[in-house]
Amino acid sequence: MTTRDALQQIVPFLEDSPAVCATGHIAREVQGLKDRPENFYVIGSMGMCSSIGLGIALSRPDKKVFVLDGDGSVLMNMGNLAVVGALKPKNFIHIVLDNEAYSSTGNQKTLTTAVHLDEVARANGYKTVYRQGANENLTDITQKIIRSEGPAFLLVKVGPDTDKPAPRVKADPDVITKRFMNALGNQVRGSEFIRY
Q1: pLDDT tens per residue across span 163-191
Q2: Residue 78 sits in which domain range?
Q3: Which of 13, 53, 131, 162 is deepest in the core (most CB within 10 A)?
Q4: CB crowding 34-67: b at 16 or more within 10 Å, else e
């Protein structure tokens, strides 16, 4: 299963929920599968997907917030897993597609053959953690993670991205931001001091 194959099964579950899509192939594939105002495509900010998603989840506790992330992105900002675990937003769903490579920059290897991101998430306090097994249906496990109490983490091991990548995200970051905020009714507050 490739990143595209996995996203084809995950994207239908987004419905009208906000989804923060990691820079590179994940954002490009989601745009190709189902472009919508509720998608926030992270462009040029590798590693920040979970931070942005966390801010949205804290600001909009009435909505499930999906973070569609890659292994390289998580490794680049691993400290945010601890922040998610400490703040425990119940509406935060973190799905990581792990192909053990930095696909967008030439398939250089990541460290996830040795570092198991699901175990890292569990150690950092995520309430629900799943790792898709070889014989488990991704549709079934995605339904399970959505019904679970968050913060929830799903690790999906995927193969190398051998398909031709989907086209680059078309909109500029300011356009993406404005349409995303409009889709959420401009109810995403700015950064606030949080006590924990």
Answers
A1: 787 889 988 999 999 999 999 986 555 54
A2: 3-183
A3: 53
A4: eeeebbbbbbeebbbbbbbbbbbbbbbeebbbbb
